[in-house]
Amino acid sequence: MSNVVFSKRLSVFLLVVALALLPSTLFAQTQEEPIVIGVAVAQTSNVALLGQEQVIGAQIAEKFFNERGGINGRPFRLAFADTSGDEAGAINAFQTLINRENVVGILGPTLSQQAFAADPIADQAGVPVIAPSNTARGIPQIGRFIFRVSAPVAIVAPNAVKQAIKQNPNIKRVAVFYAQNDAFSVSETGTFQQTVKDLGLELLDVQTFQTTDTDFTTQITNVLPLEPDLVIISGLAADGGNLVRQLRELGYTGTIIGGNGLNTANIFPVCQALCDGILIAQAYSYQYESEINNAFREAYKKLQDKEPPQFSAQAFAGIQVFVEALSKLDKRKPLKDMDLKTLRAELREEIMSGKYDTPLGPISFIEVKKEDGTPAGGEIVQEQFYVAQIRMNPDGKTGRFVFVD
Amino acid sequence: MEGFLSTYGAAIVQMALAGVLALSMYLPLMAGQLSLASPGFYAVGGYVAALLSTKVFTGYPNGEYPIPLIVLEMGIAGVIAAFFALIVGIPALRLRGIYLALATIAFVEVLRIFALNQDELGGAVGIYNIPQPFFSATRIEYLVLALPLLVGAALFVARLERSRVGRAFVALREDELAASAMGIFPTYYKVLAFTLGAVLAGMAGALNAHILNTWNARQGTFDLAILILAYVLVGGSRTFLGPIIGAAFLVALPEIILREVAGLPGLNPVIATFLRDGRLILFGVLIAISVFFFPYGLITPSLLKSRRKKTPAEHIEPAKATPKVSGGEL
Lengths: 405, 330
Description:
The complex is a heterodimer of chains A (405) and B (330). Chain A is 42% helix and 20% strand. Chain A has helices at residues 3-21, 48-67, 87-100, 112-125, 153-156, 158-167, 183-198, 217-223, 237-249, 268-271, 291-304, 310-332, 340-353, and strands at residues 35-39, 76-80, 106-107, 129-131, 146-148, 173-179, 202-209, 230-234, 255-258, 279-282, 355-358, 361-369, 375-382, 386-392, 399-404. The termini of chain A are far apart. The model of chain A is unreliable at 23-32 (pLDDT under 50). Chain B is an all-alpha fold and 330 residues long. Chain B has helices spanning 2-30, 38-56, 67-92, 97-116, 143-162, 164-174, 176-181, 186-212, 222-235, 241-261, 269-277, 279-293, 301-307, 318-326. In chain B, helix 6 crosses helix 8, helix 6 (164-174) packs across helix 14 and helix 9 crosses helix 10. Chain B is globular.
């Protein structure tokens, strides 16, 4: 390729690139900036299904609290930065929010793995972070500025077992199934098995399967002669649903508890009418009666035409914590008198000491310690948990999660 | 400038690391082997550094982890990656073309599933709290390590291209049968190219474990293999500069679209939303366009040749290069 041809091609190429980017430079205006709260969640990539729910929850909170006067009359604005699904993306998004948008705090990121990458950066910069959906162990232990409003698996899961005993006090004999190749299921089953022991139930047998399995006859045949009256399953939707169906088909009539992997309407087509009665623990219930949850539920339904999911409620709660802590801080020490660094540091203390009545129920934070004993961030103290039971419609194809208490 | 660096520090360091990864795939490609195993060695390197820094070299407060230890970790990661490359490479490199690509994809998958099921490696959550050598919220300081790694790798490959070994690689790429007829032992050179690539990928992984603070089974998967392949193909697979430029270009592009172009004040919200959420579409279109205009990549040897004064030795002409190696023992 000669020099001339190359130059020609290069100019055409650059022209096309420029044309692609051109529309952006056309419109220009400026506006005054209110207080900025950052939202760094996965708006693209395969995690976006969760991230989009969080965006909706945060946007509802932005509108809701601004209509109620914002931060003592001063409005606030959300700055969104897409983390995409990976760790590097989360780091980039955090740095943009911290250094460019000058946010007072950040809601995010979506995944626990991303939190382990990006949270230390916010912590070093002294920017409070509230995690809306990180459930892994060790998140608030990352640093002093890290909080979460998402209760960890180890706290949510046991509620389903307690509910099962409440419904049937005669439950004594428990069999546990879990998907060996799914990390979340492996850690969840640990929690379930511990709960079973703690509650004085008899753990008859533990069976493993793969999330790719479709035939569970061997495992079920091993378990049924032991006559369990409670079966606990940690797996994903397709395998979990199939396991439930085959358990029922092979004659099991006792209670079934599903883990978080079964916490989706996607299992309805798999086990159909046999899904009926599965118990699943939840960190949020749209049926929870309180002024703030009713308002949130109504706003969400108006926007999305369906009941709000847990991810949106947790994102809403995260923004609410920021707004209420900022308002309280402002009354104590006017925000406009503080530089950004002081404001962020003061905000951290304010978040930690407050109590918040959120759509998740009343929550507060307890300061945790790092492994070396130095103080770290805030773990959520959530008073209310919920258990939903699957109720299938007579057609056997559709169903819903009914909250029980 | 300060704001620019603090916002883009991490992205700039990632550009350098992407360049090293691109070189790691370029090396086997130089010998005509389409290997997608780089992410596997990258993952191994990351785990080596994560384990060493959290389990072995402990006791340093955050922000004061010694840089020489990171260099040592990178060295160990390189050696272990080379070991893996030998074990995998000797049988796998009997395969050619897409079959080799498939085998290397399988290798990456096996590693991922192994890591996911290994408690010592932290399962899905992975290893976190990896100690930091710098007490700073930006990641730009890591250029101290990333840039020498990139420059070192680039110089190494540049020298290699003109050495006897490099010419043997090129001869194999152009015609394996002819090359072996001239005394080039294909297996030896293929495994050598594969192993050199693995060392680079392992070292990049080791460094990135520190940059990301954490390492888990989501690092170094098949998706990354495709991305690295795009770096090499867009940049050009016939000279070492190609993959480096391709990597820098493709890593920077989505960031620029996302943070600069879509964030321009007063931008029409519909367009801004499209640029933000649809930037990967734009990214794909730009890759397609660049491949359309530059089927051999942005940087080609003839381009480099024509840009400089014409000196015969500049351009590696496979047909001329082969006889030079044929005389020696191989």
